[in-house]
Amino acid sequence: MADAAAQEGAEQLLHLKLALLAGEPPACILALARKAGGGSITSHVQNFLLENFTGTNVDRRQNSTYTTTIFKRVISEVELSSGVVIDELYEEFAQRMLSKAKDSLLNRTDFMYKEISFLSSTYDNVSSRLSVVARLSCSSNMLEGDTGCSLWPSSLFLSEFILSYPKIFSTKCCFELGSGVGLVGICLNYVGASKVILTDGDTSTLANMKENMELNNLCIEQEDSEVLKESKNKVECKYLSWEEVSESDLRCYQPDIILGADIMYDPVCVPHLVRVLSMLLRRHGRQGETRGKSGDEFETEGPVAYIATVIRNAETFNCFTKSAADAKLSAINITSSAAPSNFLPYMLSYDRSSVQLLKITLLS
Q1: Mean pLDDT of 336-362
Q2: Of 139, 197, 223, 260, which one's alpha carbon is 20 to 30 angstroms from that of 89?
Q3: Angle at 153 between CA 144 and CA 313, to 5 degrees
């Protein structure tokens, strides 16, 4: 009984730590802190936060403003509930408010360093739960147009899908449209895709994506690089404009699987997206006919696309389905039948139920 309680307590503290590393909103952090303290933010929880997010234990790339905000919210909550704020937390917060960081990385508020940790559902103890950790530089200012450098729920969902069904992607050439921060590519590399090609049509997003690959010790494709050819941890990061790309531009890739997360965002872009999907799905010159048993979601003759999306605008989604049908593409919703495992139980802001997963193939 005592062992089970200790295990549960360790699990809750792990969730709190991972949520902070992932840059979860303050309200979510407070909720996890309360849960770890059995209903309130105890001295033990406060000490845990200090031990893990101050001094030598904090990564210099992490956003200092974010951590300071969390400490401020914790202090306010404990005080309002007539609890005891430990002196060390007061001192740390006061020091942060008075000091002016000289390190440009700490002062950078437009981008935020995040660690997204995927937790395995099968484990012997809490310390062995981590499946894969993705280190990402993400925009903290979506309102200024940095949407490509932001972390979206569909990319989390698609990453969970990849980790839940690794055999689909293992040894396959995978090509992602609108790769953003590159999270999906990191997961594809983890499950053993033979080739990972990440693309985006925004140059600043592409530059940030390359930085993220380097953060995760992944080699970026370079011309005539023998070291890269021999490396298993490699990705290609390519500029791709849906409006301008031609079939000859895509001929060299021959992908087995095409992926995309939250790429149906504008009705104006939908026809270009469908055109690119059609060209990529024709790469092998084969149709997407099912070769497995009836009802098998994953067995196809030719290339297949998996698109995760949140339907924020029904008109945009309907525009996509119509354009896909006109282009003789089959778009099947497999969200329920191929639901991924929950690898991110600590991300309270992540609404998995809002994401739809489509399987797209060429009609025969």
Answers
A1: 96
A2: 139
A3: 70
Summarised one tens digit per residue, pLDDT across range 328-339 is 999 999 999 999
Q: Is 314 exposed, middle or buried (0-12, 13-18, 19+ CB in 10 A)?
A: exposed
Integer angstrom CA distances of residue 211 from 226, 230, 233, 239 = 21, 21, 15, 15
DSSP state of 299: -
Q: For the stretch 147-164, what's the b/e string if a residue is b when 16 or more beta carbons lie within 10 angstroms of its beta carbon?
A: bbbbbbbbbbbbbbbbbb
Distance CA 155, CA 140 (A): 17
**Closest Cα partner for 341 from 84, 121, 171?**
121
DSSP state of 167: H
Query: Cβ contacts of residue 167 below 8 Å, gap of 6+?
Result: none
| pLDDT per position as a tens digit, 58-117 | 655 667 788 889 999 999 999 999 999 999 999 999 988 887 555 444 455 578 899 999
Distance CA 294, CA 307 (A): 22
Residue type, 98: L
Count the Cβ atoms, other than its own, within 10 Å of residue 59.
Answer: 11
Return the closest-CA partner of residue 183 out of 235, 221, 229, 222: 235
Q: CA 8 → CA 14, 15, 20, 36, 116, distances in Å?
A: 10, 11, 19, 9, 21
Contact in structure between 115 and 17 (CB atoms under 8 Å): no
pLDDT of residue 122: 64
Closest to 235 in 3D by CA, of 254, 253, 222: 222
Residue with tokens 């031990």: 51
DSSP letters of 256-271? SEEEEES----TTTHH
CA dist 343 and 72 (Å) reads 29
Among the ranges given (119-128, 144-153, 259-268), the one the predictor scored with the smallest mean pLDDT: 119-128
With b for 16 or more beta-carbon neighbours within 10 A and e for fewer, the 92-122 pattern comes to bbeebeeeeeeeeebebeebbbbbbbbbeee
